[in-house]
């Protein structure tokens, strides 16, 4: 970490109120943080949330922006069945944002970290042309991690929660989609306050054989594609089985486009040997679970009872699909 | 990590040629990387290099830009006396840069990683308005880490290498300073190809009591200030003792301004109980070492035989000093 004066003062203020757990030997303020050696293999992931690409400042409160930046990382830990431990935060800041804005952003980030048992052990602030929050998140996995390459023909495919709500909220906020009342509020909230399915991921990882899993960050169709590619299998998805919220149906009817390729759901997709009931899984994982299809021999995903997306979904290099 | 199609293809190509050591259980391509549990306490740091703030694309080759982004992180590991292990890379890319550019950038990054024994275990690519490379670097520290808060009145202050060259190179590249011939080439090279003092840091950390240390990324005066603040001590620095290169002297004569506050040296500053000889230390650490002053009671740094900088040095929030 580098600490120029303005930056030093800012990061010192932002990190001053962060409490640290016993695993942190040395927290923010030195060249590196020092963390006690973990007992289990370590998970590492990095993700970034960039103003003008993923969000606009007015779309959520500063607290929500901070919490959201952490949650999208925690979702990657959840997808491996891991327990999040420590993270480091790089903040690219631009002119026009107040000290109060960053205090609130860090308050939201800190609260989300505490709720997930995460220590924010270091930070770096740099000037940029847009606000960007990049977080490297570490975690532990007690048993075997849930990998993308473990799906097997015959496996049944499940997802947690409902799909497409956040993509809908994003479009409402961006002025690309109109919605009213409670449905509007619901989908916007799903975008603003995603949930990393950490407990569900940890419980899933105890199932034997360990399920193949991925988190749905770029849209079901695309993330399913990554899992299929890594596992060298295909899939048949049943369009009527896709879990759509009441708000989604109210806004889009039966059009599953955003549920298939909208992105930013942060739900888990996982594959189990045949026979598990979605109902029993819902109870076991503490979140609604829907069976949406089956893994097949061959390659690629086929949609039964609906039109497959023309392209994969959210592409951070091209913008939303 | 999230992998939209364009991004997925790009990161897959960029990381395909990265070889992984045995500590990597699962490399790039899943939601997280999995790394074997380290045996020693772990170091974690994050740093970012942003186009238009820290560099311009034309100022160095893509390979140098990639290597440099890693080196500034490795310097933080060096300042703790650590051994770098794994890193994750977040690349914010903008329009107008070719696939070849990123291949070359990653080739430079990969070569620097191999040279330092670092595994690049994960990556993420996002769109942005400027090219930015953010790296979270992990390391191990076998004994006690060198901290900023361990300086003691009476300690002698040393630095490795020479100071101010890189800041001079930066100014030459930015058109703010004129220089010619070999001196110009030397200072530009010092900016383009910084060296993380990893071996020197590891050897220093074996000295007892463990020295206080910091890397000089934001200018001697400012980084010294951080060390003094954390150690609750003062310092007396002797201006004539500052190690200036022949190229520096040729361009700036005896004006030590950039050596004091230029930034981006990535040399180590460390404090030892009195009596060590700079000559013996140079041999022991494998790099030139100069004694530049002494730790005192009280607070703040005082410059003997020269004018102290008016402000701290490189401020990433304001721009170069």
Indicate the structural class of chain A: alpha+beta
What would CATH call the homologous superfamily of the largest domain in chain A? PurM-like C-terminal domain
Unreliable sequence segments of chain A:
1-5, 313-321
In percent, how helical is the residue content of chain A? 25-40%
CATH class group of the largest domain in chain A: Alpha Beta
CATH topology of the largest domain in chain A: Phosphoribosyl-aminoimidazole Synthetase, Chain A, domain 2
Question: Reading side by side through the largest sheet of chain A, how are the strands ordered?
Answer: 8-10-7-11-9-12
Could you tell me which chain pair has the largest interface and how many residues each side has?
Answer: A-B, 85 and 86 residues
Properties at a glance:
globular, Phosphoribosyl-aminoimidazole Synthetase, Chain A, domain 2, disordered N terminus, 321 residues, 12 strands, 24% strand, 60s Ribosomal Protein L30, Chain: A, homodimer, disordered C terminus, 2 domains, alpha+beta
Explain this structure.
- The structure is a homodimer of 321-residue chains.
- The first copy, chain A, has helices at residues 5-16, 62-79, 99-116, 165-173, 181-192, 198-204, 220-231, 246-252, 257-261, 278-285, and strands at 24-26, 33-35, 42-50, 83-93, 119-127, 132-140, 156-160, 212-216, 234-238, 267-272, 289-296, 300-304.
- Chain A has 321 residues and is of the alpha+beta class.
- In chain A, the strands form 3 sheets. The first copy, chain A, has a 6-stranded mixed sheet, with helices on both faces. A 4-stranded mixed sheet of chain A has the order 3-6-4-5.
- In chain A, helix 2 packs parallel to helix 6 and helix 4 (165-173) crosses helix 5.
- The longest helix of chain A is centred in the N-terminal third of the chain and has 18 residues, at 62-79.
- Chain A is globular.
- Chains A and B meet through helix 1, strand 2, strand 3, helix 2 and strand 4 of A and helix 1, strand 2, strand 3, helix 2 and strand 4 of B.
- Strand 2 of chain A pairs antiparallel with strand 3 (42-50) of chain B, so a sheet runs across the interface.
